[in-house]
Design a protein that fits this description.
74% helix
Length: 72
């Protein structure tokens, strides 16, 4: 059950990362002085990417999930 929750959380975070990527793109194209700058959204994307990597490393350390076996 914990593995399913972890996978759902990781997929949700990855979708949020993609959404921030597109919000940064639209922010760069709009040229609106009142809107947050593109770096705001790109910084969020980098932060949540680091969180995803941290979750994967912690899941591996606590044996919640395992790596794929070597194919040879």
């Amino acid at each position: 059950m914990l593995t399913v929750i972890l996978k759902i959380l990781l997929v949700a975070l990855l979708l949020y990362i993609i959404a921030n990527l597109f919000r940064g793109l639209f922010s760069a194209l709009k040229n609106d002085p009142d809107a947050p700058p593109m770096s705001h959204y790109i910084g969020k994307r980098v932060l949540f990417s680091a969180v995803v990597i941290l979750f994967i490393i912690l899941a591996l350390l606590f044996d919640v999930t395992t790596l794929n076996q070597r194919p040879y």
